[in-house]
């Protein structure tokens, strides 16, 4: 079967391509739900999530080898040599041009490569995985690129929480697994944050873990429609409380404006505190109370009490803003 072929679906506008680069286990599924909510659409579950408006492409499908093959090469899935960037770039370009592709499938359950699947053009593509910003050709097709940046202390805490509970691992095993991946992560994944348009960065709170300091790092002059704060905001009523502030910085050679949330909101007073936050944001460009309502709708989702949920929801609304601008909506 051909890797690229004419589409049966015709669009009025070129698809909007959003790249999301992140390590595994960083909460991309919750972020996707926020994006779907902002766009007012949904997707059907399956290996590739597809809906009437949005398709999610997992770039793990472009692994060259299956699990046994990587064991033979001794290379991890993070290694650029284990990923077919030529095919990835060509197919993302074809989708951007309104063509259809037969995309490969990497089956995470079996560790094998399954037969390719037909992907037709859609209004929005979220291209997510380890390397959406790594290759220049694939990166050049993106209308907006996001890097989820989790410092090692937070990544270790999260993986311990997940792997000890779900996999029966010990903390020592979790730490060993992170250390084993670290050289390839540093070489092939982490450098992408220099080229991303917007970075969502997780650090330990000034009050220590498990509380978080979450930063929305917005490159100046880029395609991400920037938000700012009217003033620094202090939220109290529960421990540890939360602080929102804004400042400028140099991000890996690029000027950027950062909106930061440290700590947690009072979940018993969630709606009121979210109203205060929303009223303090400049440039949100949403419906009245849209941010509050989106957060309340996913109140039980991971990170809803801290900057994770808040800034993911902001990014989701901004993706819609980019879509509206590019399609003339």
UniProtKB/TrEMBL annotation:
Tell whether Kinase is among the UniProt keywords: yes
**Biological process terms in GO annotation:** reductive pentose-phosphate cycle
Supply the source organism for this entry.
Answer: Polarella glacialis
- Protein name as annotated: Phosphoribulokinase
* Reaction(s) this enzyme catalyzes, per UniProt: D-ribulose 5-phosphate + ATP = D-ribulose 1,5-bisphosphate + ADP + H(+)
Q: Which residues form a coiled coil?
A: 260-287
**Pathway assigned to this chain's UniProt record:** Carbohydrate biosynthesis; Calvin cycle
Q: Does the keyword DNA damage apply?
A: no
PROSITE patterns associated with the record: PHOSPHORIBULOKINASE (PS00567)
